[in-house]
Structures are given as structure tokens and as C-alpha cells.
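Whiteboard transcription, Tuesday session. T.W. wrote the C-alpha cells on the left side:
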């Protein structure tokens, strides 16, 4: 392996400008991890790509010498997707930015994979347009990373995840083949939908070098609501009451009772005594429609809570409300020496059952497990907090039981964080051997030498190992 890497780097030194290939130890160390707890191997080099030709050169050379390549955006992932599990090269795409090319009349934008998600939002909203995906790390994460993970966020309930907002891609396969997939038109059913296949493939099939995004008109008005509830079991019923009005909020978020206890101490926001759950709802549309929906939703929710519903229509006030939700991950991290955030999904009506399972697991294993997340989608972020190294086996056992509980309740292993390295051993809980094998064959087609992001998605042994 060492000799193959050296030969690959020699080839790259001839094909790329000097500033692209970095072997400094500090640079390699900083690219050996992401925001997850995944532990990989130190890469031999980091390649800072500036354009599609750089990506072609890297994958062509790596394929010729059998060197693993780990594509990377901003490194904000939570399942180890950007962690090099087998060393080799890290292909950093965060500098592949360029201009955000917006076509207002046709409602599209063409962007590089290194463009920060918040910059896309700002640019299209300045033109009166809207792009849906809003992951919690939107101020740091990149479009390429969003595409690799099929990122979601609070607005997914109404607007869908990243896949629903990508029309076409320029990609480079594991063989170094550059191709365009998808389209730039609003409609199109020519051939297989390779664009949707690549979205969410976590860098195991191809590297995205350009994306064509779908845009829609920006909503005229937005209102954010804080709804304090007396118990977690009220959450799905309150949501049902809203949907029964034929109102679809763009966001339906929740915090459970353990998370509210932390919020009481960590936030400037006053949490009413007796509140055991919080819903954050957001409505959007025309000024008239939002005003009408707000009145109807408020009346419907009054049957489920005795607390005053908070309402914010001004952007600064809405941001203050949202800071409660967006800052929870950091607030929870301050509660313990170690923290893992797991991302599972169950049918919305099973959310109380999942939270009950978390309580049982917390008591059985002696660790704290506060939860919050996207209640409208049934997508819960379960946090495991612990202080002593000796507790790690209990954390691992609780994690495995959490995944099994999600599947048992009719759910799935991941809603938006992907499978990556950390959830790969559990893939068989949800998918059959035949399904995993079919996916492995698809990977072989795009990446016949198995160099792209090895150690991700598929179990290390058995069906799907790659």
C-alpha cells in the first residue's frame, strides 16, 4: 500500500499544480476526522481540488494504483462519512466554489460542490427564490456534502430533502470518467434516474463536481410558533390536529422533557413550569394565507396545551425562537465529557414509544439520553451523554438497542445523517442480504476498483462488504 501511494503521488505531482497536493502532517491530521466519533486512518495526502479536472486526475491516478480516496466537503458529518478508514488520499472539495449561477426565469441555480449551503440560501433569496434543504450545520456545510448525504433539516417536512431539489449533476466516477447526469429542465424522464442514485450515496459511487438545483419562489410571509405541551405523548396528536386543518407547516420540531430540563438551565428563553415537551412550528405562504392558518392552528393547538403559544413574525424574533432548536446540540455537548447524536426515524405516531424506549435504555445502561428532532417526519436525534471511559460499553450497547428499537417500531436507521462508517455494521438490521448485494453491484459499476470511500455504508464482512 505504501509503495502504491508513493507512485500515485508521483503521478499526481505531474498532473496537478504544486498547491493541490499536501502531505504536511498537521493538514493530514485535520482531515482524518469529522464531527462524528468515527476513528479512521491518517491519510497520506490531502488533495485540495479546485475544479473537475483535478478530480479526474486524482481518481484516474488513484484507480491506476489502487489507492483509496475519501471525498470530503466541510467535514460536518455525524456518521464518519468523511473519515478515511483505510488511509490513502482525502479529496477535499470545499474550495470548488466558483459563482452561484442563478437563472431566475427558469428557477435553477448551478453551483460548485464547495459552496456553503447558507451562501446558496442568501444568493437565491436575494432574487426572490427559495432552495429547500436547511441542515442544522447550514452555516458551515457545503452543497456537495448535502448531496452526498441527501441532507434534510427542519423544512424537510414540507419541502423534502436535498434529492428533491437537485435536477442534474456533473460527476466523476471511481474510474475517473467525467459525465453529466440528470437535466436542467423542470421535467424529464429520459433513462434511469442516475442523479437520484448519486444523491445520498455518501461519496461511494462518484464525486460531484457541479450541481443544478431546482428553485421555487420565496414565501411571502413566515411565522414561527413555540407550543409548550404537558407531555411527550401529546406531540403526535397535536400535529394530527394541525394536519387535519389541511395546513402543512414547513417545520415541525420537538424537544422532549429531558432536553427541556437542559434548556431551562442553558437558554435565556423561559420554559414554563410543567411543560414536558416543546413543538416548534413554522408556517409560510402568502401574507393572507399565513394569517388565516395561524389563527386556525392556534385554535386547534389550544386543545392540547394550557400554556400560552409563542408567536414570532419578525425575522429577529423568529431567529431567537429557532436558536432554542439550533443550539441544542452544543448545549447538550456541554452537559457531558462525551456525546454521540444518533439519527433514527419511526412513523410519527410511534414517537412517544421511541422516547419511552430511550428512557428504558437510559435507566438500564446508566447513561443520559435526551432527544429532540423533526417531529413531523418522525426523525429523532437521540443523544447519548457520558462522563467516564468505563461507560463506553454501555453506550455501545444502548446504541445497538436503539437501532433495533427503531426498526422494530417500523422505522429506519437514518433520516439525514447517512450510514457512513458508524452505522455500517447495523445495515443488516434493516436491509436484506439480497438488497445489500444489489447495492454492492451498483457500486462495482461506478467504482470497479473499490477506491471511493471504502468502509462506508456496507458491512465490513458478509454481504455488501467492499
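and on the right, the sequence the group agreed on:
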Amino acid at each position: 500500500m505504501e509503495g502504491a501511494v508513493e507512485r500515485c503521488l508521483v503521478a499526481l505531482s505531474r498532473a496537478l499544480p504544486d498547491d493541490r497536493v499536501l502531505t504536511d502532517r498537521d493538514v493530514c491530521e485535520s482531515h482524518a476526522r469529522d464531527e462524528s466519533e468515527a476513528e479512521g486512518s491518517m491519510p497520506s495526502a490531502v488533495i485540495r481540488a479546485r475544479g473537475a479536472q483535478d478530480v479526474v486526475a486524482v481518481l484516474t491516478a488513484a484507480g491506476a494504483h489502487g489507492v483509496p480516496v475519501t471525498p470530503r466537503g466541510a467535514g460536518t458529518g455525524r456518521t464518519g462519512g468523511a473519515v478515511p478508514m483505510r488511509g490513502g488520499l482525502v479529496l477535499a472539495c470545499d474550495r470548488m466554489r466558483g459563482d452561484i449561477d442563478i437563472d431566475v426565469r427558469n428557477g435553477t441555480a448551478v453551483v460548485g460542490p464547495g459552496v456553503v449551503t447558507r451562501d446558496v440560501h442568501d444568493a437565491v433569496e436575494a432574487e426572490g427564490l427559495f432552495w429547500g434543504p436547511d441542515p442544522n450545520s447550514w452555516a458551515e456545510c457545503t452543497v456537495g456534502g448535502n448531496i452526498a448525504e441527501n441532507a434534510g433539516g427542519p423544512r424537510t417536512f414540507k419541502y423534502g430533502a436535498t434529492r428533491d431539489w437537485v435536477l442534474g449533476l456533473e460527476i466523476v466516477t471511481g474510474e475517473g470518467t467525467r459525465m453529466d447526469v440528470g437535466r436542467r429542465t423542470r421535467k424529464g424522464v429520459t433513462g434511469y434516474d442516475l442523479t437520484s442514485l448519486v444523491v445520498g450515496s455518501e461519496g461511494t459511487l462518484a464525486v460531484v463536481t457541479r450541481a443544478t438545483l431546482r428553485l421555487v419562489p420565496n414565501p411571502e410571509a413566515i411565522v414561527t410558533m413555540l407550543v409548550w405541551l404537558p407531555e411527550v405523548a401529546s406531540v403526535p396528536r397535536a400535529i394530527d390536529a394541525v394536519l387535519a386543518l389541511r395546513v402543512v407547516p414547513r417545520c415541525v420540531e420537538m424537544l422532549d422533557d429531558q432536553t427541556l430540563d437542559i434548556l431551562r438551565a442553558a437558554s435565556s428563553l423561559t420554559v414554563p413550569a410543567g411543560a414536558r415537551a416543546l413543538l416548534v412550528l413554522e408556517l409560510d405562504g402568502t401574507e393572507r394565507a399565513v394569517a388565516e392558518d395561524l389563527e386556525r392552528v392556534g385554535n386547534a393547538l389550544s386543545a392540547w396545551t394550557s400554556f400560552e403559544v409563542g408567536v414570532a413574525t419578525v425575522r429577529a424574533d423568529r431567529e431567537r425562537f429557532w436558536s432554542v432548536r439550533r443550539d441544542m446540540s452544543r448545549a447538550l455537548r456541554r452537559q457531558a465529557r462525551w456525546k454521540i447524536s444518533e439519527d433514527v426515524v419511526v412513523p410519527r405516531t410511534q414517537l412517544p414509544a421511541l422516547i419511552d424506549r430511550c428512557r428504558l435504555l437510559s435507566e438500564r445502561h446508566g447513561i443520559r439520553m435526551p432527544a429532540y428532532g423533526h417531529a413531523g417526519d418522525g426523525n429523532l436525534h437521540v443523544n447519548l451523554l457520558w462522563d467516564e471511559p468505563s461507560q463506553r460499553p454501555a453506550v455501545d450497547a444502548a446504541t445497538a438497542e436503539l437501532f433495533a428499537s427503531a426498526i422494530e417500531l417500523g422505522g429506519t436507521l437514518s433520516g439525514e445523517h447517512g450510514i457512513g462508517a458508524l452505522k455500517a455494521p447495523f445495515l443488516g438490521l434493516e436491509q436484506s442480504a439480497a438488497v445489500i448485494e444489489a447495492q454492492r453491484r451498483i457500486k462495482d459499476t461506478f467504482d470497479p476498483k473499490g477506491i471511493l470511500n471504502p468502509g462506508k455504508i456496507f458491512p465490513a464482512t458478509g454481504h455488501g462488504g467492499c
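Someone added at the bottom: Confidence is low (pLDDT under 50) at residues 462-466.
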